[in-house]
Amino acid sequence: MKPIFMTYTKNDIINFCVLMVLGLVIIPAFIKTEYWYTSILIPWLCLALATIGQQIVMGYTGQLALGAAGFMAAGAFACFNLILRVPELGFFGSLIVSGLIAAAFGILFGLPSLKVRGIYLMVATLASQFFIVWMIDKFGWFKNYDSSGIITAQDIVILGVPFTTPLAMYLIIVFVVTILTLLAMNMARGSTGRNWMAVRDMDIAAESMGVSLLRTKVQAFAISAFYCGVAGALFAFTYLKSLEPVAFDIKLSFKILFMCILGGLGTINGAFIGAAFILLFPVLLNSVGNNVFHGAIDATIISSIEQVIFGLLMIVFMIYEPLGMAKLWETIKQKFKSKKSKK
Amino acid sequence: MVNELLFFMEVVVGGLLAGTMYSLVALGFVLIFKASATFNFSQGAMVFFSVLAFCGFMQDFNVPFVFAFILAALLMVVVGLCTERFVLRPLMNASEDTVLMATIGLGYVLEGLAQAAWGVEVRRLDLGIGDFPVPWIADNLKLFISALDITAGIVATLMIVGLFLLFKYTKIGLGLRAVADDAGAASSIGIPLKHIMLLVWSAAGVVALVAGCMWGARAGVQFALVDLALKALPVLIIGGFSSIPGAIVGGLIIGATEKVLEVYIGPFFGGAIEGWAPYVLAIFFLLYRPEGLFGEKIIRRV
Hints:
The complex is a heterodimer of chains A (343) and B (302). Chain A has 13 helices and four strands. With 343 residues, chain A is mainly α. Chain A has a domain at 10-249. In chain A, the strands form two sheets. In chain A, strands 1-4 form a two-stranded antiparallel ribbon. In chain A, strands 2-3 form a two-stranded antiparallel sheet. In chain A, a hairpin with a 2-residue loop joins strand 2 (156-158) and strand 3. The termini of chain A are far apart. In chain A, 46% of the residues are buried. By secondary structure, chain B is mostly helical. Chain B has one domain (2-226). Chain B has helices spanning 2-36, 43-60, 65-88, 96-118, 135-141, 147-169, 171-181, 183-188, 193-219, 224-230, 232-239, 244-264, 277-288. In chain B, helix 1 (2-36) crosses helix 11 (232-239), helix 2 packs antiparallel against helix 3 (65-88) and helix 2 (43-60) packs across helix 9 (193-219). At the A-B interface, helix 5, helix 10 and helix 12 of A face helix 4, helix 11 and helix 13 of B.
């Protein structure tokens, strides 16, 4: 495993502790309302995790993929079946194995990336999106022969302790997301990430330097799908609390793509910024609609406006800051720093 | 046996004709790709936007059919103008992936605007051509083929022949091809890049409107049109991104294959394999013939 995971530095351990304390102690101490957990923090962290997956394949390796929701569906349904059929694994065991199953799909559908790039690859990955969702939908086994189409997710039980309140579920997610995020940062910084970026920036040069394109790309797709799979399982078990293939349609894939691009390609913190923005902006817009215009604007119009704004932002960012909000944030920080040093 | 053969023929012909509908959408993609080497992901949104505008003019403002069509076409020219000015020009020197992502954004803008202006409910579009079997063909050839499918086939053929001639034999077409080959060199010898872009995007808008009318008459004018338009992507991969005849052949292949698979293999898997079969077919093409049937061999080796 050495080539994938760099050795941990002291900084990593400090970061880990800080994030854990922040997520597990400080936030629960201040936020008491359930709404914050169920509607904002939980989906935010789940989608941010999926966006990290998208970042790995798109931001770091430069492969235009558009099938994150398909891998999320694979992870979610794998987790459901594992808990149902192999209860000995426990929740975390199932989570990891379902991530691995999603990774297997990732390898399979990532193979075309060896031959094509850009829009061509996008179409190939669209196949994974449609195929996985169709497969789950049409074969009753995956849904445990449930005819209603919507299956209630099992309760999360870890070592006999049920985690069913929003706060408890949130704690699990913080734990998983923190570990996976630090892992991703480590990979991105280490030789794995450098290989990815070498392939992204100039694949021919990378190959002539001895970076195996096959291994690097397949690895990126597998790890990306692993992240998406785990995120999908968490998303279904804690946020949706039900499993239906329709929830993982192409729209969700686009959403994750937007989070990734607006947040900032090739950054891990961009995944969190992007996810927060895409998730919170509609909430903001809705509350403006309700409070300022007192419901005078139809809800469908608000959601259309939201779509227009996302689209416009996408164009504006592509023109002025293709590296997204994370870069914007860096620039602002730099400006403040230089002002201070001048004084 | 004869009946089975007839049924097979019917499935194939129905598929081929349905495929021309995909071709119509794909044509818009090819047009822009051929003239600017830009992949316009918002073509599906343009289909939705234009036909919803057309319906809106007709049904909300009682504009007569022909004028509504002209108004919608003019609207698409305006869209093309704005796209050229505000999206493409600032991105002139950006990488193709950046432009592609900007067109995804453009698609979102168009979808949102269309729904904000004309609502989200499904609209019926009556072109005066029924979606039922033509009696004459049904009587004489024992094939049940919809009149709408035949119309779509004829319209697609006409447009493709027209565009093909335009690209091959006119001065404008030569300019378009020059810009696609090397935009910098083309503009340095005096080809007006802005006008060319505007022309191409407007033409793609009008093609989108025609495609939208055909789809709208069949499935109703609704948001699902955007997803249907995604199926033009495998069509393009099979036909080749820069080939106008490729768009129609690709559409025919996709249409016929997906119908045959759906009817003969679909029942074993619970149906609805139409949803992904075209994409998987496209993957096989990508593996063995990445430039498509008629495309130029320009794909960069990875």
